[in-house]
Amino acid sequence: MPYRRLPNTDAARIKALKTAIEKAENTDYKELQITTTTLSESKIVLNQFEILCSRYRRMHDIQVKANKTFQGKVKNARMYISHFVQVLYMCVVRAEIKESQLEYYNLQDLNMVVPDLTSHELILEWGNNIIEGENLRISKGGVPIYNPSVAKVNVMFSLFKDGYKTQKLHQKSTLRVLDEVAAYREKVDKVIFDIWEEVEKSSLKISAEKRLDRNREYGIVYYYRKGEIAE
């Protein structure tokens, strides 16, 4: 015997509700297989769920588009910080800057290796270290490094920080709406379950073949186990 299974995607949930509602609205009142109470609730639930899903798609699209712009800012910040550190190390090798002054940048324990900049958090950490370190060294009478200058590094780093904060806000907003969608799925699934239960109970007295076809008109999806033949 075939068995039914509730939808497992939001698109399938919406389709199931729409199918049942459309079938009910085009059926004579006396032949309805679901109660008017269930039909009314299904319309309310469908409307709210579509609004939530639409809002999530909109927020997700905004986040994706903003991320494309942000990735350029990440690339620039990483490149300028890396280049600055490399120039700083060359100045140390040429004895233009004392090796002990690497402490200003928290670079004293890296053995003249460019710090890890693979994550956003590490870019934030080292961007601050490099900018603060260079400003401290200059305030003590040191000659500024050029090509790139700390001012240029600071511009790229500031753009990165602003983009990072914006992305965090987008992610937070998207996740909040996604949580609302996830929480509402329980109500949607319950309404679909109630519809299917009422539909199946109302058609118990007719033959199995006609019963399955009739129930499918309300959106019930039947599956056959391995080895079974569809009726």
Helix-strand layout with pairing:
Layout: E1 3-4, H1 10-25, H2 36-93, H3 120-139, H4 150-202, H5 208-216, E2 222-223
- What pattern of helices and strands is seen along the backbone? EHHHHHE
Shape: rod-shaped
Count of DSSP strands: 2
Number of helices: 5
**Main beta-sheet annotation:** 2 strands, antiparallel
| CATH hierarchy class name | Mainly Alpha
Task: Flag low-confidence runs.
Answer: none
Gyration radius from CA atoms, angstroms:
31 Å
Which strand-content bin applies to the residues?
Answer: under 5%
Q: List the strand order in the largest sheet.
A: 1-2
Tell me the number of structural domains.
Answer: 1
Please identify, by name, the CATH architecture.
Answer: Up-down Bundle
Keywords:
231 residues; mainly alpha; Ferritin; 2% strand; rod-shaped
Question: Can you tell me about this structure?
Answer:
The chain is an all-alpha fold. The protein has a single domain, classed as Ferritin (Up-down Bundle). 68% of the residues lie in helices and 2% in strands. The protein contains 5 helices and 2 strands. It has helices spanning 10-25, 36-93, 120-139, 150-202, 208-216, and strands at residues 3-4, 222-223. A two-stranded antiparallel sheet has the order 1-2. The protein starts with a strand and ends in an 8-residue tail after the last strand. The mean pLDDT is 94.
Question: How would you concisely characterize the structure shown here?
Answer:
The protein has helices at residues 10-25, 36-93, 120-139, 150-202, 208-216, and strands at 3-4, 222-223. With 231 residues, it is mainly alpha-helical.
